[in-house]
Write a structure and sequence with these properties.
The complex is a heterotrimer. By secondary structure, chain A is an alpha+beta fold. Helices cover 25% and strands 34% of the residues of chain A. In chain A, the strands form four sheets. In chain A, strands 6-7-8-3-9-10 form a six-stranded mixed β-sheet, with helices on both faces. Chain B contains 13 helices and two strands, in the order αββαααααααααααα.
Chain lengths: 337, 279, 422
């Protein structure tokens, strides 16, 4: 039950004129896999999801769910389920009726509905809250109602729109793994939209980075991390993201951007160093520190284990291997071999 | 808290002076014989006995109830229907919204006179188009006519219904659409239940209003006829007071109307609470 | 008592002033309240103006109210609010309720000081406005019911104008001849005041006692016959506009637009008909059964009781002027009234040959046979009930004359009793 987007484009009319929100997006999510669509705000992630759900009409391209072209079908006919960012629970209905809504709309027999609803509720741990009203639930519980409402129908695909953004940090981590394991056990093809690159890296079988309505790169999270195909991807993923600096800092010619991940940079004696700089700031983050080093007119970040670092002051040398150095075209941003 | 109380003061004073005091006076008058010309004379429960035996009163009460039963559901369906149809963000809908409100802005007298022409049995356009020559001549025709013409003056209920419809988050409809709900299912399981509390209040308000608003059309269009079919309580009170100068007795009827209104409000409030319709 | 009254006034008119000593204010110009269409009321403006210009005249505010019902409602509320107009014009069928409630200052007390000679007036209106043995208000007119007819329609139908002493059967035949297509022969309202002269002409009575009535007597054979006659014009001859037609357009409008050959009314329609270009019309006497009979239509100027004595005296002076020769002449020229002052009624002001109707003397010739309805406080309500019942007798299928007579007696009984208690 593969989900396939081919050359999807979508334009919006605004006061300022026409805006291309999606510009030829192609994406394939294989059966049972989860693809996380990530990108900065305004990159078109949510629009992409709404296009798949059928809530927006396409201006071009096609959407295929489980081998069926659904481009011109109504949302209800596409066999997909969506979890909205604000959950969109029906406030006048109990948890049970919320979960059952889609089954009712599809005229599923009543006794089947009860069984399915209870099963779905127990999968998300809501058995005890079934007869409550949504406004009596906590944020996490409401989020689970939204999940149960999606999975009760056993759709061909899940579409999750920033489902964790309204939860506090602790709950977010917990729910993240819960969603992932639910998705795996149900073996349901899923698109998961987020602006949070940590979620992207931890949850997806693959990650698609969206930038201004175009897919910048798709692939397994580690591939994107290790071999970002553009400077944008390199600068978007990772925490903190990759250091990008002009190649002339290394004394090389050419119009290139060099990149190196902060955790791959060593603080070394100035003799062995490939770059020299002044320490501008030191940020301890738990067991690690992030050291801001000024090199010329750039600031590079270094992420180190706190224990390996002594007193930091004055001029330092920065060292890294050739394998850790990424090079991109300064004009196109494309990765150079 | 203190400040808000102060802000309400002008209104409260006005209410007390212009509504409260006359109401109390009318309450007192209900137990007198009073022509307006000479002073009131206390007659105890004589007016009440008269009321019980007064067939014209019971007939007017019956007419009023018939009016409520005919007009309120029609008006509510019309207000709701207009709100749902004109809720969309389209050119037609934005042109339609003021149109739906427009008849409400027309002064009652002008509106009644307009209908007097529309419903003219021989020379009116409705008679010409539908052959409804008997509308104002037949008792039930007149009752239905007055109920029907009130259906177009639903501006306030329409605006409230529209506002409530607009307050429903669009996400809910998107969720329902993805859930596979068709328009009818969304209307009956989503829109209507979410609007029900306010629709309940609107209905309550309309019932109370319907005890009163029919005065102008009944006065100008049908003069309470034919065969007293449209002599509603307000018109009966008016005639009793200002045509036959029984102001004391008219106060008794008005007081009865007040009690009926209170009972209706109470019953509806109870029902609303039982159905958990009050917000 | 006084506080209660003020409270009541408050209830009625919102916030009327509870100051002053009487029903009327003590300062400002005197007011005269009249009812009627603009054509009818403009003559009072002329009288008020003439009074102002007269040697010892002064300003009077004319308060015009378009409809009779509103006129009465306004009077009641203004009495209750202590703001009654000092002078008001009212029909004899409606003034009794004001008299029994002490709202009228009898005009009798002001006759002498103003030099009013009652002998100069027709006796019938004076009698109608006499209550408890005293003249209450000063009548300004004496109209009777006549047949207005459309001369053109008569000519087209080959009919001669109705002659004095014509019979019920003549009326029936004339109406039948006129009834053709959109035109109906005769307009007659289903009311007691239209029915009464027919009953009287047939030798019957409408009530058991004209002064202290206790019941309708339409079950009496002569009265019943008159009712049967009129109902048969509607139901059998179908010469009277249907209920539909009347709802669509009233009798006056139907007459003016040539859809009605004849209709029964008092003098009051004359000023309106005069304004209609191209309408050829005249008046004729009512048809006669046993003996000629007419019904009195008369309005009088009344003084509000309880006002400041000096102002009331001033108001009485205006009334003397309005019902005196000059006032009556202006009124007669206005066309609305048949003057109650005999001299003016017989003068050129009323019998003006250049104005329609061509035979104004018809109004005067009917005067000797003129009678009135009872003067009792509940009469307006009795008339309303009767109109509803007679409407059914005219138009409702299956509603018989016996039903009507029985309903009339039963429904009006409490009102006769109430009037008798006073």
């Amino acid at each position: 039950m593969t989900l396939r987007l081919r050359d999807v484009s979508k334009r919006f009319q605004t006061r300022a004129g026409e805006v291309k929100v999606l510009d030829g997006v192609s994406l394939e999510v294989p059966q049972g896999r989860m693809t996380v669509v990530v990108g900065p705000s305004g990159s078109g992630k949510t629009t992409l999801l709404r296009c798949v759900a059928g809530l927006e009409e396409l201006d071009g391209g096609s959407v295929e769910v489980a081998g069926r072209d659904v481009t011109s079908l109504d949302p209800g006919e596409r066999d997909v389920a969506m979890v909205f960012q604000d959950y969109a629970l029906y406030p006048h209905l109990s948890v049970r009726a919320n979960i059952a809504f889609g089954l009712r709309a599809r005229k599923v027999a009543r006794d089947q509905i009860d069984a399915k609803v209870e099963q779905a509720a127990s999968m998300v741990g809501l058995d005890a809250q079934l007869d409550r009203s949504p406004d009596r639930l906590s944020g996490g519980e409401r989020q689970r109602v939204a999940l149960a409402r999606a999975l009760v129908r056993r759709p061909a695909a899940f579409l999750l729109d920033e489902p964790l953004s309204n939860l506090d940090a602790e709950l977010r981590t917990q729910t993240r793994s819960q969603i992932r394991s639910l998705q795996r056990s149900l073996d349901t093809t899923t698109i998961y939209v987020t602006h949070d690159q940590v979620e992207a890296m931890t949850m997806g079988d693959s990650v698609a980075v969206l930038r201004a309505g175009r897919v910048e790169q798709v692939g397994p999270p580690m591939e994107l991390y290790e071999r970002p195909s553009t400077a944008f991807v390199a600068g978007f993923l990772g925490s903190p993201p990759m250091n990008l600096f002009p190649s002339r800092l290394l004394g090389r010619d050419g119009d290139q951007l060099c990149g190196v991940r902060p955790e791959r940079v060593d603080l070394v004696a100035t003799d062995d160093a490939r770059l020299h700089g002044e320490i501008a700031a030191v940020e301890p983050i738990g067991g690690e520190v992030i050291v801001h080093v000024r090199v010329g007119d750039c600031t590079l970040l270094v992420r180190r284990d706190l224990r390996g670092v002594g007193h930091l002051d004055g001029t330092v040398g920065l060292g890294f291997g050739d394998d850790d150095l990424h090079r991109f075209s300064a004009s196109s941003g494309q990765r150079l071999p | 808290m203190k400040k808000t109380g102060l802000l309400a003061l002008p209104f409260v004073v006005g209410l007390a002076a212009l509504v409260g005091l006359p109401a109390v006076a009318a309450l007192g008058l209900a137990f007198t014989e009073f022509s307006g010309v000479e002073g009131p004379r206390f007659t105890g429960s004589a007016n009440v006995s008269r009321l019980v035996a007064d067939t014209a009163f019971w007939r007017s009460l019956g007419n009023t109830l018939i009016y409520i039963v005919l007009a309120v559901p029609l008006r509510m369906v019309a207000a709701l229907g207009a709100a749902l149809l004109l809720n969309r963000r389209s050119r037609t809908a934005s042109a339609g919204r003021p149109l739906a409100y427009l008849p409400t802005v027309v002064p009652d007298v002008a509106y009644a006179l307009l209908w007097l022409w529309l419903l003219n049995p021989l020379y009116g356009p409705l008679a010409a188009i539908f052959g409804t020559a008997d509308l104002l001549v037949d008792p039930w025709g007149a009752r239905v006519s007055l109920a029907l013409l009130s259906v177009f003056q639903i501006g306030e209920a329409f605006v409230v219904a529209l506002a409530v419809r607009r307050s429903i988050p669009p996400h809910l409809y998107e969720a329902a659409a993805v859930d596979g709900a068709g328009p009818w299912f969304a209307l009956s399981r989503l829109t209507l239940p979410l609007m029900t509390p306010v629709l309940g209040l609107l209905t309550l308000r309309d019932v109370i209003l319907s005890l009163q608003v029919n005065f102008v059309p009944a006065f100008l269009l049908t003069d309470g006829g034919p065969r007293y079919a449209t002599t509603y309580l307000p018109l009966y009170v008016y005639r009793t007071a200002f045509r036959y100068f029984r102001l004391g007795y008219a106060s008794t009827i008005a007081l009865t109307m007040f009690i009926i209104t209170a009972v209706i409000v109470l019953v509806q409030y109870r029902l609303a609470r039982r159905w958990r319709l009050t917000p | 008592m006084r506080a209660a009254r003020c409270l009541a006034a408050l209830a009625l008119v919102g916030a009327a002033a509870c100051s002053g000593t009487g029903a009327s204010p003590t300062e400002g110009p005197l007011r005269l309240q009249v009812a009627g269409e603009p054509e009818e009321t403009k003559v009072y403006g002329a009288i008020v103006e003439a009074f102002r210009r007269s040697p010892d005249g002064f300003e009077i505010d004319l308060v015009e109210v378009p409809e009779k019902d509103e006129h009465l409602a306004k009077l009641t509320t203004s009495f209750a609010g202590g703001d009654a107009p000092e002078i008001f014009l009212i029909n004899y069928r409606e003034y009794a309720q004001f008299v029994v409630r002490g709202a009228i200052e009898p005009y009798e007390g002001f006759l002498e000081t103003n030099g009013v000679e009652l002998d100069a007036y027709f006796p019938q209106p004076l009698e109608a406005f006499t209550f408890d043995g005293r003249l209450q208000c000063m009548p300004q007119n004496i109209s009777s019911l006549v047949v207005y007819f459309n001369e053109k329609l008569f000519r087209q139908a080959g009919l001669d104008p109705p002659q004095p002493g014509w019979t019920w059967e003549d009326l029936r035949q004339t109406a039948r001849t006129l009834t053709k297509g959109e035109v109906d022969g005769l307009g007659i309202e289903p009311s007691i005041i239209r029915l009464a002269p027919f009953v009287w002409s047939n030798g019957g009575e409408i009530v058991d006692d004209p002064d202290t009535p206790s019941r309708f007597t339409l079950d009496d054979p002569a009265a019943r016959e008159a009712l049967e006659y009129i109902v048969s014009l509607v139901r059998d001859d179908k010469v009277v506009p249907s209920e539909q037609e009347i709802t669509a357009q009233d009798l006056e409008t139907r007459f003016v637009t040539g859809k009605l050959g004849m209709f029964l009314s008092s003098r009051r329609d004359t000023p309106v008909l005069r304004e209609v270009l191209g309408l050829e019309w005249d008046v004729a006497a009512l048809p006669v059964a046993e003996e000629p009979a007419g019904i009195l239509h008369s309005d009088a100027y009344c003084l509000a009781a309880g006002g400041d004595a000096e102002r009331t005296a001033q108001a009485a002076r205006f009334i003397a002027f309005a019902t005196g020769r000059q006032g009556q002449t202006i009124a007669a020229l206005g066309g609305r009234t048949v003057p109650s002052l005999r001299e003016v009624a017989r003068s050129g002001a009323f019998l003006d040959p250049t104005q329609s109707p061509a035979h104004p003397e018809v109004f005067l010739q009917g005067i000797p046979a003129i009678r009135r309805t009872p003067v009792i406080a509940t009469w307006p309500e009795i008339e309303d009930l009767a109109e509803e019942i007679l409407t059914r007798a005219f138009y409702e299928e299956g509603y018989t004359i016996d039903d009507a007579i029985a309903a009339l007696e039963a429904e009006t009984q409490p009102l006769f009793e109430e009037a008798a208690e006073r």
